[in-house]
Write a structure and sequence with these properties.
heterodimer, A: alpha/beta, 6-stranded mixed sheet, 26% helix, 27% strand, B: 192 residues, mainly alpha, 7 helices
């Protein structure tokens, strides 16, 4: 689903748990794409072919999975990262994750070619000039969020959902740190808040007021 | 009268065979002792390097072997020398040098010299890695057309880099091997 120029969203619509995926199309050299959080290969309970669904969705938008040059992972949990292993092995995509989440990613067989730090990620000669990577711990120690300042888009991973937050009770999670992260992200100028899951809502919150209302709701309820 | 033939016991047969063997030479005896007591020293050094025992405890344990102290000590010294490696944890190599200094009493200058030489080899090795690593950024990021402060290559999974690292290590290894062998030779000659 095309959300903005060069930017596509693939909200998970299956029955099992899996993440929403996002694609920056043609921003790399030779027109290759960047996928954010490709999700599970196959979901664990209902055995839904989630990676296949992502590739089919991309195909419908004229994007070929074999043209994915880079996979950005917001964090290491398999419902976000498992398919990255296939992208790397089959399509020779490079995989990027924060160093603090790399050990957990390696436990499911993942290899990180690039470590993500807080800072800028620039695409030379692309319509998407640069992204800002924020280290956003709390859900996991090495969770990152991806901000596109030009279009005021925040890919929030599992920090924040529609009227809810990511879990902080999983290994490496910390509710207090997650609260800090959410307060910090709430200060950004956001037009499109793109959540890591479609929990009771597609997880794509558009409009500054809607986004701010969501942050206020979470602050009042949780922090 | 013909001596009565009787069936020999297994013990008797074994004893007969042993008595037929040639006497052990002093070299054979020394070699056997080295095989027997050398690993004792190596195991002690292993425990010391892992942090299970301190230098004092290592020294105390070695001194318990009054009869074979020299062989046990040499086993420990060999193991400590082997741990002077390029890709070893710096804390382990520092520990190995401290251990060598403790075992080789009175050879402090020898150990210090070896330590300095080892650190010099290590510095050159690390400098070469740093220089070569700068190239890997362009090797990985350039083909994608990406850059920025948020992206840092992980050389540990980069096949061309791992190949290159192996070659760099190989180029420094002969000097290090010479250093280890020299140190071991000198410590043995001085009877530590």
């Amino acid at each position: 689903m095309k959300l903005l120029d060069s930017f596509y969203a693939y909200p998970w619509q299956g029955n099992d748990n899996n993440c929403n995926s996002y694609v920056f199309a043609g921003v790399l050299k030779e027109g290759k794409h960047v996928v954010v959080d490709p999700g599970h290969l196959i979901t664990p309970y209902y055995r839904e072919a989630s990676m296949e669904r992502l590739l089919n969705g991309m195909n419908q938008d004229g994007l070929d999975g074999s043209d994915v040059g880079l996979v950005l992972l917001t964090h290491s949990h398999p419902d976000h990262s498992e398919s990255a292993i296939i992208f790397r092995n089959e399509f020779h995509s490079l995989v990027a994750i924060h160093e603090a989440d790399a050990p957990a990613f390696s436990q499911i067989g993942g290899k990180a070619d690039i470590f993500l730090d807080e800072g800028s990620l620039e695409f030379r000669g692309s319509t998407v000039a640069a992204l800002q990577i924020y280290h956003s711990p709390g859900h996991t120690p090495g969770h990152v969020t991806i901000y596109w300042p030009e279009r005021r888009v925040l890919i929030a991973g599992d920090c924040i959902f529609y009227r809810s937050t990511g879990r902080a009770d999983l290994p490496g999670g910390d509710a207090r740190i997650l609260g800090k992260t959410i307060r910090r992200l709430g200060e950004l100028d956001i037009e499109h808040l793109l959540c890591g899951h479609a929990y009771g809502h597609p997880g794509i919150i558009s409009g500054r007021e809607e986004v701010q209302a969501n942050f206020s709701y979470i602050r009042n309820l949780f922090y | 009268m013909v001596e009565e033939e009787r069936i020999k016991s297994a013990l008797e047969i074994a004893m007969e065979r042993i008595s037929a063997l040639p006497e052990l030479t002093p070299e054979d005896i020394a070699e056997q002792k080295e095989k027997q007591y050398g690993p004792v020293g190596e195991a002690m050094a292993g425990r010391y390097l892992s942090g299970a025992i301190t230098e004092d405890e290592l020294s105390g344990e070695l001194n318990k072997h009054t009869d074979q102290r020299q062989i046990v000590c040499f086993g420990a010294v060999s193991a400590l020398c082997r741990s002077l490696r390029l890709d070893e944890d710096p804390e382990i190599t520092a520990r190995a040098l401290r251990g060598l200094d403790r075992i080789a009493l009175g050879k402090t200058s020898l150990i210090e010299k070896a330590g300095e030489e080892f650190r010099a080899v290590l510095r050159e090795f690390e400098l070469e890695i740093r220089t070569q690593l700068q190239g890997i950024e362009s090797l990985v990021l350039e083909p994608l057309g990406i850059s920025g402060s948020a992206v840092r290559c992980n050389p540990a999974v980069n096949e061309p880099w791992l190949e290159k690292l192996g070659k760099i290590r190989q180029s420094h290894e002969p000097r290090l091997e010479k250093l280890r062998a020299g140190l071991l030779r000198e410590l043995r000659a001085t009877g530590s």
